[in-house]
Each structure stands twice: as C-alpha cells, then as structure tokens.
Amino acid sequence: MRRLVETMRPRVILVVDDEPQIRRAVRNALANDDTRVEEADTAKAGLDVAASERPDLVVLDLGLPDRPGIDLCRDIRAWSDAPILVLSARHEDEDKAALLDAGADDYLTKPFSTIELQARIRALLRRSARATAADGQTSITSGTLIVDLAARIVRSAGKEVHLTPIEWDLLRVLATESGRTLTHHQLFKKVWSGRSHGDAQKYLRVHVANLRRKIEDDVLRPRYIVTEPGVGYRFVSVQEST
Predict the structure, then answer these.
(1) How many domains does the chain have?
(2) Is residue 150 domain-shared with residue 58, that is, in the same domain?
(3) Which CATH number fits the domain that encloses residue 108?
(4) 241 phi, psi to nearest 5 deg
(5) Euclidean distance between the first and final Cα of the chain, in Å?
(6) 198 pLDDT higher than 70
(7) What is the CATH number of the domain that holds 207?
(8) What is the pLDDT of residue 5?
(9) What does the angle CA 131 – CA 136 – CA 137 come to, to the nearest 5 degrees?
(10) DSSP per residue over 189-205, as a string?
(11) Does 198 lie in the same domain as 182?
(12) Which of 19, 87, 91, 226 has the fewest CB atoms in 10 Å of its CB?
C-alpha cells in the first residue's frame, strides 16, 4: 500500500536588522527543523521579504539604515497580524509606548540574552496560536474569573460581578488581548470609542482601580490586570507568568 507522508510548512521568522552579528545570533537561537529564519538588513528588504514570505513572526530592529524601524512596524501591521518583536537600545517608557502604539506586540532592549529572546518568541507564538483558535469565542476563563462576552456577564468564584459600562468595556478589551500589553493610548481609544482628548492615564487609573476592587482577591497584588509602569496594562491568564 502506498504510504502518504504529510508535509507541514515550517514556521517562518523574519529578522530585520542591519547588524550581521545580531541576525546571526537570532538565527542561531531560533532556527531548527520546524523553523526557517529569513533575514533582511534594510527596511525596504524587510518589507519585500515580509510580503513574499508572510512570516509567522517578525523580529525588528529600530535602527535601520534607510528608514526608522517603527515606520516599518506600522507598514507590516497594516496588512499582517503576525507578532512583531522589536529590538531596541532605547529604555524610555515613552519609546516603549510608541512602539506598542505602532503595532508591535513586545519589545526587547539590547543587549539581550538568548534565553530571554527564545522565551519572548515562544510567548508571542503561543498568544498568536490562542488568538487564532479563539476566533468566535463567546467567553474567556482565567482561574475563577469568567467573562461571558455574548451575555456581557462577569463571574468571579461563581458569583456575578456587576460592572459599569466603562468597566465592562475595559475588561473585555484587556481579556480578549490576553497576554499583550496595551498602552494607555490604545485602551483609551478602544474603550472611549476613539476619543482623542483627555488624560488617558488618569482616566484609566481610576477605572482600573475600581475594576480591580471587583474582580481581584488582592488589589495590591493583582492577579488578572497587571500594570506595565509608564506604558499601560496587561490581562494575565493564571497559566501565564506575570
């Protein structure tokens, strides 16, 4: 009997960086039988490879010779949902927030360790897989917290939690983006329906505090809604590390 061998497409990771040693380090850390690493040393080449190869994940340096990496991030995000991990020598909160607002999913400051790079990549790929599998989901469960998206009901330890409309929208947005840091600007825009004025950080601080009092066992050590200082907030599943 003829034996059929199923072939699976290897995962493709694109590395855009003008430093050969960085590209080599990333390639050595990530390439294996299941993962193919493509490389580009300019923004133009990176965009071309991204369009032709449709990578599963992009590792992007900010300091490219022809265009700022943040512009390339916006270009790729305009048509691709692939996770984008930005490599940056910048440590300021404002820079991190700008990257996330531009569509990046995570950032890693240089210098970085191979172990941390691999861990960040695994986390991003897991989130991407969960997001794909969760398309059309009607509820989100994390520990004893259940967010019923269809019925607009939240239960904690079996008891229904009464939320204001703003608190519901805030929890819904965070929970459906579980594991991803959302900046103050992103949350403000999503929850307040595109409103462009007002102090986003101040508004969010008040409503997140109220929401935590209703769903967290210990508001001083929140389990579900974690603060990323100076940047924004992240919803954490109990299976994930905070």
Answers:
(1) 2
(2) no
(3) 3.40.50.2300
(4) -85, 140
(5) 52
(6) no
(7) 1.10.10.10
(8) 39
(9) 75
(10) HHHTTT---S-HHHHHH
(11) yes
(12) 91
